[in-house]
Amino acid sequence: MRVNLTKTDFSWHMRSLPWCNVLATLSVLTFTAVAHEGHVDKDAQLACKEKELRASCQYVKETGDNMAKVYSGFCQKISHNKMCVRNQPIKTIVLDPIEN
Predict the structure, then answer these.
(1) Residue 82 in contact with residue 67, Cβ under 8 Å?
(2) Integer Cα distance of 11 and 25 in angstroms
(3) pTM, entire model
(4) What is the 3-state secondary structure (H, E, C) of the chain?
(5) What is the β-pairing status of strands 67-78 and 56-64?
(6) pLDDT digits over 37-50, tens only?
């Protein structure tokens, strides 16, 4: 048995192959973009509300038991939101109790 592969049959397959690569690449890029569209921290946004881009910023989040975490970084625009982007290690601090 002999298989007859003409140039037209083979060229159609080769022409469709780049579209498969394009579709695969676009699907990976779309998934990556969606993965980075997560939760926007309101405290990070408030830390940069009155500041210029690239200005240093920090904000504090209470964790309970008189403890809090301090986030330090710089103001940056991400997904149409100006927010404090951390570029320093997170610091844990002990909060003083409020006296009545």
Answers:
(1) no
(2) 22
(3) 0.59
(4) CCCCCCHHHHHHHHHHHHHHHHHHHHHHHHHHHHHCCCCCCHHHHHHCCCCCCCCEEEEEEEEECCEEEEEEEEEEEECCEEEEEECCCCEEEECCCCCC
(5) antiparallel
(6) 567 899 999 999 99
